Amino acid sequence: MPQIYRRPRTWLVYALAGCTGVALLFGPRVSGQQASATPPIPRDDVKACLACHEQAMSDTVKAVNAAGLQTSPHKELKCQDCHQSITSAPHTPAMVKQKAQCVSCHGNQMAGSVMTDHPKDYAISVHARPDKVAGDHPTCVICHGGGDPHAVVAVSSLTAKDKAELCSKCHSQKDRMARYGVDPDAVSSYNESFHGKALLRFDLPNVATCTNCHHAHDVLSPKNAGASTNRANVAATCGGCHKGAKVNFAMSGANHLRLKAKESRVILWELWFFKIFVFSTLFMMILGVALDLRRKVFTRGHVPSAGKPVSVLVALGFMFTAAALAVATAGIPGARKCAIAAVVSMVLAFVVYYSRKRPVQAPTPTRTYPRLSVVLRWQHAILMTSFTMLAITGLPMRFASVSWVGSVYVLFGGLAGARGVHRFWALLMIFTAVWHIAYLLLQWKRSGFSRKNWTMLPNLQDVRDFIGVSKYYLGITHEEPAFGRYQFREKMDYMAEYWGVPVMVLSGFVMWFPIYWGNLLPESALSFAYIAHSYEATLAFLAIITWHMYNAHFNPDVFPANNVFYTGTLTEEQMRREHPLELEQLLRAENASGADKPEAKDPPSHGPDPAA
Q: What Cα–Cα distance (Å) separates residue 311 from each residue in 25, 284, 563?
């Protein structure tokens, strides 16, 4: 069959030709319009960038912190100085993929105080390790801008306190530190050290912070031979501030006591010994006072000399004191409220005591018995004053985490002034202790070196008395044992001085001259001294306010105070209540000799016989 050829329709040909012509005629204009929609961005047109980026574009594109940028060291820079890949808008994926790099500027020669070694230092530091979880390690932006690249803060504006808090934000996170084998207790150890307390709590400017010891960019593990905290380099590191420091001083663990305790069994054992010793002793004291109050306040038929209402208020004051100590020890809020309640209760006890009506009686001569000589009264006065001043100037540093305690230092012109006052009264306490020992030796010599006159030494009778008092407190017996010249409570008070004063003096001198003793003694000496000094001071303070003050002054049978510490004598009523066996002995001696009963002015010189 012959092939049939069909001519295309004329109108279709003309249509195709027309479209082609239109495309050729208007094609360049269309492409020109498309090109003009993405013009190049002028380098100095920051406003053009902020027109879009002033607000968040998406979840991944955040708003530019224009206010932070204006106060940063980069305020004179243009956007494209950092974002060099951004050349047009809208940005292509290739432009966005390339991130701004601090090293593009800071790796080159820069003028002024801006150093150029930071990128190299950071590259070898532990902070440059790969992240196990995204964002684990700090970057330039994290440390210098808090995570905001546009709000970079000048290093010169960061205080030492700012730097310590900055490092602590990451290093206090246990989960993050555990992933890299870093102990998070480094933060709490620093906070509890002298440097940490002086800087973070008392705002001393020239105190070592994290970067002074570990550096800022080339932070290396202490196991690294090039680390500033490596054993081979610590002497030079500490010597920058502490002239003459050697390895033993630098490795003492004074800045990281918790970490040192994990390394040294000696420090760990000492720490646990003092914790157990302090808290068990305090518990026994509080228990003894509580049982005594139960018998004297809540037992029928027994009316204390201060009266029931006063006794109840004293019991409440003691209860709130014990609660304040327990709450503070456990770290539970409310210690201040309990302490205020204790003070209010005691104040009310004094008000009620002095406002009650007393029957008018004709004055009768009261016989008194000698108790404390003038020398002992002066020694007690100096000891009492020095102890009070040492507590006021020392405990705020020990408990620096309690914010209101530190305000006491305002009275001394700050921490430096308080430290000077603390040392002065420490020397005065040492002088009093030496004076007292010399006085005892002199009295012993006058007695012919007889051991019978060492009446303050504990003996078997004190054990019997302790058991008898325990039975009385528990209701097994109905009468408290009768005591002679000194009872076991007074001996406990007195003998505690022979333990506490040497511990405080020796540890205090080590802490007073830390470089000398730190270099001379083993490297654990400073940590050992700090633990002993702080825990013994805490025990002494708590023992005074819970045990000594109660037995000597706030006991309902003694309230409002036992004035023997300034009169040096006890009345016959006090002797009959507190030392009946001694009173009987004195009366028998007087009856046997047939002597009159004049008022004694001073205790006889019968050997070392100090009062508690």
A: 111, 21, 19
Cα–Cα dist 254/242, whole Å = 13
Grouped pLDDT means (10 residues each) for the chain, 612 residues: 45 48 45 44 67 74 80 84 82 83 73 63 88 90 86 86 92 94 93 92 88 90 92 93 93 89 92 94 92 86 83 91 82 84 94 79 74 94 96 91 81 91 97 95 89 86 94 89 92 92 96 94 93 94 91 89 90 90 90 62 44 40
Residue type, 329: T
How many whole angstroms separate alpha carbon 305 and alpha carbon 285? 23
Could you give the CA distance from residue 156 to residue 411 in angstroms, rounded to a whole number?
A: 32
Residue with token string 């030079």: 236
d(CA 208, CA 534): 22
Within a 10 A sphere around the Cβ of 606, how many other Cβ atoms?
13
3-state secondary structure of 84: coil
Rounded Cα–Cα distance for residues 375 and 108 (Å): 77
For residue 369, the surrounding DSSP H or E stretch is strand 368-370
In the block, tokens 């409002």 appear at 560
Is 351 in contact with 344 (CB distance < 8 Å)? no
- DSSP structure string for 24-62: HHHHHHHHHHHHHTSPBPPTT-HHHHHHHHTS--SSSSP
